[in-house]
Every structure is written in structure tokens, then in C-alpha cells.
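Task: sequence design from structure.
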């Protein structure tokens, strides 16, 4: 159990940080079987970079989202983070992801 009382779960060989995240994964699998989504990625990682005072681009960290998948109805790739508590660091990483990669991260509560 983590400090926010979320209980880790294992589904299909993936370890999820909470029951809510595992339930969202199972929902995505049902949507995949129905042909509404495909290409589900669990815990996609993105390197975060910034330019230093010397102008050199450096890796400053990494953002790990909960899911990425192709939405067949919207015809777009979607990026999702399941959150119980949305902390300032998570908000900053989402802002950085949008600025660096041009992706919008959806929050599922």
C-alpha cells in the first residue's frame, strides 16, 4: 500500500498502482475487443528535456503516463493518466509533455 492508501494490483502481467488504474485498463481491454480502441500501451515513458544556460539540451527527467491508445472513433491517439490525487509535480510534468511533445494528457478520476 502506498501513502495515499491505493492498493497495487496485477492484471495481465502489468502492475498497476491502484485498483482504479487496473479497472481503467480492464475497461480499455473491453473497448479493444469491441473494436473501439487499439494499440493500448501501458505505462508509456517520455524523456523530458530542457536547455541549460549554456544552450545545451539535457534530459531532466521522465514522465510515465498510465495509458496511451488509438481511439478508433475519434481517429486520434489518446494519452491518459488515472489520478486519485493530482499533485503539483504531476501537473508540471503534463505541462512539460504538452510543450515538448505537443500531446494533451487526459486525467481520469
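Answer:
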Amino acid at each position: 500500500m502506498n501513502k495515499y492508501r491505493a492498493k497495487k494490483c496485477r492484471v495481465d502481467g502489468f502492475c498497476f498502482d491502484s485498483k482504479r488504474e487496473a479497472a481503467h485498463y480492464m475497461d480499455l481491454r473491453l473497448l479493444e475487443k469491441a473494436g473501439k480502441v487499439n494499440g493500448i500501451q501501458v505505462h508509456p515513458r517520455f524523456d523530458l528535456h530542457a536547455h541549460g544556460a549554456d544552450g545545451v539540451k539535457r534530459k531532466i527527467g521522465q514522465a510515465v503516463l498510465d495509458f496511451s491508445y488509438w481511439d478508433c472513433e475519434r481517429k486520434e491517439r489518446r494519452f491518459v493518466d488515472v489520478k486519485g490525487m493530482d499533485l503539483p509535480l504531476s501537473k508540471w510534468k503534463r505541462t512539460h509533455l504538452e510543450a515538448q511533445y505537443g500531446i494533451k494528457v487526459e486525467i481520469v478520476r
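The first helix runs from residue 19 to 33.
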